[in-house]
Task: structure prediction
Amino acid sequence: MILIVGGAGYIGSHVNKQLNLQGYETVVFDNLNYGHEDFVKWGIFERGDLGKIDDIRGVFKKYPIEGVMHFAAFTYVGESVEDPQKYYLNNLRNTLNLLQVMLEEDIKYFVFSSTCATYGNPKEIPITENHPQNPISPYGKGKYMVEQILADYSKAYDLNYVSLRYFNAAGADPEAEIGELHQPETHLIPLILDAAMGRRENIQIFGTDYPTHDGTCIRDYIHVLDLADAHIKALKYLQNKNRSEVFNLGNGHGFSVREVIETAEKVTGKKIPVKEVERRHGDPPVLVGSSQKAEKILDWHPQYQDLSLIIETAWRWHKRI
Ligand code: UDP
Result:
């Protein structure tokens, strides 16, 4: 069985669905602070908290866990600057708790949700895995620290891991059974769709004076099903006794904030009111990843290259919530 820690959240729930569709047995472990119980439509659900080591031990005693995927993390970059302790306790200490029990139980496979935020301000685009890692927020630093700890653990113990550095996760299950639902929502695409539905007055564009072709920030949006596929490939890679590795997961194409809004207007058929405001602190102008390493080593080929397809799946889901 595969343990999906944080499997009631956005990315974890999509991975859980795909694992089950491919015949894996899963146990979702989530404290539901940010996750949604009704996203756990597949596998077994165990409510528990990584802050309580006996909750973790309990789940490993109860099920024959072979490998672990770890999605549980706080992800608000701005909040991590204002309250770093909240982030280090949850994203760093609680991950150490999980790893401690994994070592006690002799679990060998670990797939870790890392982030392009571990790179900090990019020196060159596209960003490869060899790009220097200089994270600027406590969120990015905590993820980076876990990556380094994993490298040490994997050298010292019989534990192999894959760290997956996501670019901007986007889109939803095309069957709209699950999707993106954050409280509060801060991400561009769901906010644009809220504006399209009239739930918000407008979408704010954070900065129009960036050194990009239209002055707005460029990001690499990668569909959540492509991410799910990469996780399953990473798990198989570990099960095939390969060594620990780190991979970027992006689609290699950048889209500006204005391009995302224009595409959303086409997909939804609605006019989306825009308000241009100041830059958001800490946003680099361009973040685009190279995923050639994952393509080559994991044989991973993202299917959702076209931004309108990504937004279409997000829209189908968004109309249901
Ligand atoms: N963004 C924006 N308005 C919003 C939310 C986001 O202009 O209301 C921009 C943000 O500055 C960034 C891009 O959209 O350039 C993606 O932001 P998001 O928060 O979705 O993801 P992040 O890149 O921070 O992980």
About this structure: The CA atoms of residues 39 and 98 lie 22 Å apart. The first helix runs from residue 10 to 21. The domain at 2-170+222-249 is CATH 3.40.50.720 (Rossmann fold).
